[in-house]
Amino acid sequence: MFASASDAPHNSSGATRQLLIPTRFVWPYGGRRVFLTGSFTRWVDHIPMSPVEGCPSVFQVVRNLAHGHHQYKFFVDGEWRHDEHQPFESGNYGVVNTIFLGMELETSPTPNRSNMEVDVDTVVQLNDAPKLSVSDIEISRHRISAFLSTHTTYELLPESGKVIVLDVSLPVKQAFHILYEQGISMAPLWDVFKGQFVGVLSASDFILILQELGHHGSNLTEEELETHTISAWKDGKIYLNRQFDGISRPSPRGLVHAGPYDSLRDVALKILQNKVATVPIIHSSSPDGSSPQLLHLSTLSGILKCICRYFRHSSSSLPILQQPISSLPICTWVPKIGESGGRPFAMLRPNASLGAALSLLVQAEVSSIPIVDENDSLLDIYCRSDITALAKNRAYAQIRLDEMSINQALQLGQDASLPNGYFGGQRCHMCLRSDPLHKVIERLANPGVQRLVVVEAGSKRIEGIVSLSDVFKFLLLG
Predict the structure, then answer these.
(1) What CATH code is assigned to 20-101?
(2) Helix (H, G, I), strand (E, B), or coil: what is residue 19?
(3) Could you state, in chain order, the average pLDDT of each consecutive group of 10 residues for the chain (478 residues)?
(4) Do residues 445 and 305 make contact, with C-beta atoms less than 8 angstroms apart?
(5) Rounded to an integer, what distance in angstroms lies between the CA atom of residue 52 and that of residue 79?
(6) Are the C-beta atoms of 402 and 167 separated by less than 8 Å?
(7) What are the backbone dihedrals phi and psi of residue 252, each rounded to the nearest 5 degrees, phi first?
(8) How far apart are CA 343 and CA 364, in angstroms?
(9) Are 96 and 38 contacting, i.e. CB atoms less than 8 angstroms apart?
(10) What is the pLDDT of residue 341?
């Protein structure tokens, strides 16, 4: 009988116990019984691996390992195997895979907060932070880039979970009811005739459809929305190719996706370059790419969480983490009086129309818009994903975008009762200009957080915005 090894060798000298790093091992090539063994089990004990839910050919196990260099291999249906797609070398036990775990620094999770809470007791003087040289910044960027280049998308796979997939033959109306009921803002699309994933349906599609419905003289009626399929929408067959406020619908493009062996850096760059919120991770065990399996949806927040976890115990190796965000070229700031140029900053009053908010989301290419009072103090935020709340009781068929205010739209969303509280909980995620970068990225690493509003302590007057894409552009593109 195989026994599971302890998390670390017994230390008889009584020395301080080493910090252990949760490490995921994956065998994606099928089998009936798969075990893991390695230098961390003294090559004696075998650790059982379990199939990934919904993907029986992929086995995984999480093991707590000490800092340092480790060797390992897999025991699959009675045969010793190694993964040729991971680093490997020849050793005393034949060809083995290798892994190196760097030191990490524990970070505490962000506590639950009210909708409008911000740390005002941690304000520091900006001059207190040590000044960084250009070389210090480049060293930090290089270390983060090196980490992302040597780790793959398998690190993003959760131990359990679900992914909603929509068939392109579904009516558009039914698809958005599903998004609303499941509390999600997007879903991959499957074409049963092609036998492959062909795209993603997102809240942006719903915005464009609502704009088409509300356009004067549109040939697309609410009744047609009941029967037209996702494929008809994606192929442009129900769109009239007209412009709304100078913005035309982008041309359809192929599915942007990643494979299980793609590096985290490549996936982050795909998200940035294609201006998408998620990239599906698709695996196929067949050489011709048939029978694809959807493993997970990769996002910048998931990749950022990997960065936080890996550098947990080595913050000193990344000097930029202690710098206040105001000292780094990472935010979009509200222009000062008399200041010209720079990127436009999108804000709206609560009595502005929903149509104005949707147009601004499309024009500014942002995921959310701060809602402010007459002093530009933050009141709420309207997110692109909030649009799915209009699926409740077919509200989209009973409203006019130019007559419903943002405040009314937000009330409609807050009245919704979803299984996972998609519209409940914290809506406004904030930070201060004096917050260090490590605190900002810890908050952005939380699922569903796309942007932080930079506010003035006390008044909550908006000073700027920092987004996930801003962080990754700074870290990877300079």
Answers:
(1) 2.60.40.10
(2) coil
(3) 34 50 84 92 90 76 85 92 85 84 48 48 44 76 90 84 87 85 87 88 84 55 68 62 41 76 93 90 76 88 90 76 89 73 75 89 85 90 84 74 85 52 57 91 88 89 92 89
(4) yes
(5) 21
(6) no
(7) -60, 145
(8) 10
(9) yes
(10) 54
Cα–Cα dist 365/122, whole Å? 32
Q: Which pLDDT belongs to residue 444?
A: 92
With H, G, I as helix, E, B as strand and everything else as coil, classify residue 181: helix
Here the tokens at position 422 are 């998609």
Residue ranges, comma separated, of all CATH 3.10.580.10 domains in the chain are: 166-303
Beta carbons within 10 angstroms of residue 68's beta carbon: 14
Looking at the chain, the domain(s) classified CATH 2.60.40.10 span 20-101
- The 3-state DSSP class for residue 362 equals helix
Phi/psi at 306 (5° precision): -65, -40
8 Å CB contact between 256 and 234:
no
pLDDT of residue 122: 40
The pLDDT score that the predictor gives to residue 467 is 92
* CA 348 to the chain's CA centroid: 26
Distance (Å, rounded) from C-alpha 439 to C-alpha 108?
10
Pairing of strands 47-48, 79-81: unpaired
The structure's pTM equals 0.70
Residue 288 DSSP SS3: coil
Query: Do you know the residue count of the chain?
Result: 478
C-alpha atoms less than 13 angstroms from C-alpha of 292 in its C-beta half-sphere: 22
- Predicted local distance difference test score (pLDDT) of residue 300: 93
Radius of gyration of the chain (CA): 25
3-state secondary structure string, 325-383?
A: HHHCCCCEECCCCCCCCCCCCCCECCCCEHHHHHHHHHHHCCCEEEEECCCCEEEEEEE
Fold of 166-303: CBS-domain (3.10.580)
Q: How far apart are CA 189 and CA 231, in angstroms?
A: 9
How far is CA 165 from its chain centroid?
17
pLDDT of residue 23: 83
Q: Which two tokens stand for residue 289?
A: 């790419």
In this structure, how many other beta carbons lie within 10 angstroms of the beta carbon of residue 419?
Answer: 8
Q: Where is 304: in which H helix or E strand?
A: helix 300-310
Cα(342)–Cα(331) distance, rounded to whole angstroms?
11
Eight-state DSSP code of residue 263: B
- Cα(132)–Cα(139) distance, integer angstroms: 11
DSSP-derived secondary structure letter, 370: E
Backbone angles phi, psi at 421, to 5 degrees: 65, 35
Q: How far separated are the first and last CA of the chain, in Å rounded?
A: 54
Report the C-alpha gap between 225 and 419 in whole angstroms: 26
